[in-house]
Amino acid sequence: MAEKTYAGKSVNVTEDGYLTNPDDWTKEVAVEIAKEEGIELNEKHLTVIEFIRDKILKGETLTIRSIGKSGIIDTKGFYDLFPGAPLKKASKIAGVAKPASCV
User: Fold this and answer.
1) Into how many domains does the chain fold?
2) Does some domain include residue 59?
3) Is 35 among the domain residues?
4) Distances (CA, A) of 40 to 30, 34, 37, 43, 95
């Protein structure tokens, strides 16, 4: 386990850079993680991230397909917001664990 500083806050992260404690997450932390991923967050990003946090922290499992069917964003839009590996990147920025479906 490693330690990183985001928005002046020291947090523990996994070897892949995911927060180990979702309670360490703030919007300011999300902005800095997103910058590391080459993403500048806007309101649509934050809406998707808050949806992901809500579902994961309730114990639900998410897939790209389920996010695409959420009514918040379609699958193409999800890929546009988080290019390359949308579920991995969005989960990391949302401060939740790396999805089991992501290698």
Assistant:
1) 1
2) yes
3) yes
4) 10, 6, 9, 10, 16
Tens-digit pLDDT profile for residues 62-84: 899 999 999 999 999 999 999 99
Asked if residue 37 has pLDDT above 90, the reply is yes
The answer for residues whose C-beta is within 8 angstroms of residue 76's C-beta and 6 or more apart is none
- The catalytic site residues sit at 102
User: What φ, ψ does residue 12 adopt, rounded to 5°?
Assistant: -90, 140
Quote the pTM value.
0.93
What residues make up the domain containing 85?
2-94
CA dist., res. 50 & res. 79, Å (int): 17
Is 77 part of a structural domain of the chain? yes
Q: Is there a contact between 100 and 94 (Cβ–Cβ < 8 Å)? A: no
Q: Is residue 61 part of a domain?
A: yes
Q: Which residue has the tokens 């949308």?
A: 86
Which pLDDT band, with edges at 50, 70 and 90, does 102 fall under?
Answer: low
Mean pLDDT, residues 49-56 taken together? 95
> Is the Cβ–Cβ distance between 72 and 48 less than 8 Å?
yes
